[in-house]
């Protein structure tokens, strides 16, 4: 595996005001995640998994500490710079799929490429390749309402992967899927991790997901309590 450090956090703290006090969502989180890792953030609800993903994905900023993602200091980015980092280099996969219902599968996967200003031919080639990765070439003209849950999540993976991002952040990506579809989704992501060297970072408390992880980072009450490489 390449030794390029994609993510570095040093004593990351994230707090939120709640009534007359502050809620500490993340406390002194220090982590390094390298290129090509297939890593899970695990822990119960409220442990800080999603908060950490949001900060690493530049959707939120640290209260204190250092956060460097793809050579960008997350805490110092403007809104425009953070959006550019996400658009160009980071893919997101959510448990609710977040597909646009009025658009076809092809158009949903194409959307990130419109933000990058790709030409029509480039977009067509890249979308077709992404749909091939997830085995949905024959569903390109369908709309989300015509898809099963497993198919919808595969569209979400294709949308996250279409620009070949350096980093994919997946928040409970199998939460709405049965066991068979969960394994199919995870095998697809595992294959793309190997073929494209994309770094995957999951937030999950699903045992099925944990079986696939090469590294598991356990969080409790906003702190890293265990970090195991398999």
Summary keywords:
four-stranded antiparallel sheet; six-stranded mixed sheet; 10 strands
Q: How would you sum up this structure, described in words?
A:
With about 230 residues, the chain is of the alpha/beta class. The two termini are about 15 Å apart. The radius of gyration is 17 Å and the shape is globular. The protein has a single domain, classed as P-loop containing nucleotide triphosphate hydrolases (Rossmann fold, 3-Layer(aba) Sandwich). Helix content is about 35%, strand content about 30%. The strands form 2 sheets. A 6-stranded mixed β-sheet has the order 6-7-8-3-9-10, with helices on both faces. About 40% of the residues are buried.
What's the SSE blueprint?
Elements: E1 5-18, E2 21-34, E3 38-42, H1 49-56, E4 64-69, E5 72-73, H2 79-89, E6 90-94, H3 105-115, H4 120-133, H5 149-161, E7 167-171, H6 179-196, E8 199-204, H7 207-210, E9 215-220, E10 223-229
Parallel strand pairs: 3-8, 3-9, 6-7, 7-8
Antiparallel strand pairs: 1-2, 1-4, 4-5, 9-10
Q: Per the principal axes of the C-alpha atoms, what is the gross shape?
A: globular
The CATH homologous superfamily is called: P-loop containing nucleotide triphosphate hydrolases
Count of helices? 7
Radius of gyration: 17 Å
Describe the main β-sheet briefly. 6 strands, mixed
């Amino acid at each position: 595996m390449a030794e390029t450090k994609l993510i570095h956090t040093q004593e990351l703290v994230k707090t939120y005001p709640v009534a007359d006090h502050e809620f500490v969502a993340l406390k002194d989180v220090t982590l390094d995640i390298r290129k090509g890792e297939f890593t899970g953030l695990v822990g119960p609800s409220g442990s800080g998994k999603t908060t950490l993903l949001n900060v690493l994905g530049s959707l939120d900023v640290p209260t204190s500490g250092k956060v460097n993602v793809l050579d960008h200091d997350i805490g110092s980015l403007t809104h425009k710079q953070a959006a550019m980092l996400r658009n160009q280099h980071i893919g997101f996969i959510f448990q609710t799929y977040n597909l646009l219902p009025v658009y076809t599968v092809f158009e949903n996967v194409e959307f990130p490429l419109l933000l990058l200003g790709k030409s029509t031919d480039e977009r067509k080639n890249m979308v077709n390749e992404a749909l091939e990765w997830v085995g949905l070439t024959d569903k390109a003209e369908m709309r989300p309402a015509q898809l099963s849950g497993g198919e919808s999540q595969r569209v979400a993976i294709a949308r996250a992967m279409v620009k070949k991002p350096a980093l994919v952040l997946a928040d409970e990506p199998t939460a709405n899927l049965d066991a068979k579809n969960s394994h199919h989704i995870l095998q697809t992501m595992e294959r793309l991790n190997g073929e494209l060297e994309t770094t995957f970072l999951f937030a999950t408390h699903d045992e099925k997901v944990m079986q696939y992880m090469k590294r598991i980072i356990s969080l409790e009450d906003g702190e890293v309590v265990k970090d195991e490489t398999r």
